[in-house]
Structures are given as structure tokens and as C-alpha cells.
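Bench notes, afternoon.
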Amino acid sequence: MMHLERELEKLKRKILALGALVEDNLRIAFQAIEQRDRDKARRVIVGDFEIDQQEVEVEEECLKLLALYQPVAGDLRFLVAVIKINSELERIGDLASNIGERAMALIDEQPIPVPAGFAVMSDRTGSILGKVLDALVRQDVHAARDVLAADDEIDMLYQGLIEDLKHIIRTDPEHLDAIVLMFSVARYLERLADHATNIAEDVIYMVDGEINRHQVPDTPAGLFHTEGPRR
């Protein structure tokens, strides 16, 4: 079992390295939008290929360890959680690449004022991703729950950003194409936060064995309440 422990430690380093790569690519994507920087937008798009490659490597390693060692209890939970976190990180990488593509398209449009809400939301989204990765590193359930609690704030910021963009449309309809691109970016930011929330749920499962999704209200109406698929 000592060999399994060493392999699990190596796997932990791999998933953390993937998380760091995704976080860095997302940061550059935000800069590409704010600075109208074509080179940074290209870096984000190209960087997604490395993220995809690492995601495949992590998944293959998880499947190998499951087949070789048939782990149980905490080790099994760890591998299951890593498989799910790995997928969430790859999706965040895809969204960062999408933001990079929108940044490229925006560069070719007439400049429009970037709403102040974009900087606030991108900063908060990046902060939440950083916090959930830190929770993963330290296997910190309290930090993971803090990320879950921030979901409502992100939703409010998203709605505020949408209202800002609607106002720009009303006052500057000539730049509709650029504003539509920004609507896409706003949606990507909201989805990024959803994926970070999913990772927080996976961290809680990894540490405590608690499945935190699909919580049903303790009311008679809640007895018949069902949730949709994961974000």
C-alpha cells in the first residue's frame, strides 16, 4: 500500500499542476479582453491544447490506479473526486479559450467601454477559482464551503453585468456586434463560477464523503423537487 500512497501523491501533484495551468490561462484571458491584446488572446487559445493533454494524462492515471490497486474508502473517494475535478478544470480551460476567442473578435471591432462590472466579476471569479484550488491543495472543507456560499454573489454580479451591457446597447446601438460578444463573455464568467462550485463540492466529497449536490428543501413541496444536471 505504500506504493499506492506514492502514486496517489504523484497524482495529486498532477491535478494541482493542471489547476495552476488553468488558473494562469484564465488570468491571461481576462487581460486579453481588458487590454484588447491579440498576443495574449492567442496564448490562451494555444494554451488550451496543453490543458487538454494534461487532462487526458490525469484521467488515464486515475483509471490505471483504479485497475491496479482496487482502492477502497478514502483512497477510492480521492480517485473519484480527482476524475471529476479533472473534468471540471478542462471545462474551465475551454471557457478561458472561448474568452480568448472573443477577445480576438473584439479587437477587430470598434472599441466600446468595458463595463466596470466586468472587471469586478472577472476578479471575483478568478478569486473563487484560486480559493477552490487552495481548498483542494489543503483538502480544506471550510474553504470549499466558502466557495459554495459565494455562488449567489456571482449570480448577482452576472445580472448586474448584463444590465450594464443592456444600457450600452440602448446608448450605443451602432456597436451591437461588440456588445453581443461581451454578452458571451459575461455568460462564460458565470459558467466558470459554476464549475468552481462543482470543484468545491468534489473537495467536500473527497475529504468528508459527503455528496453536497441536489440538496432538497425539508418541506412537503421539496419531496417532489428534482434538480437538473450538474452545471
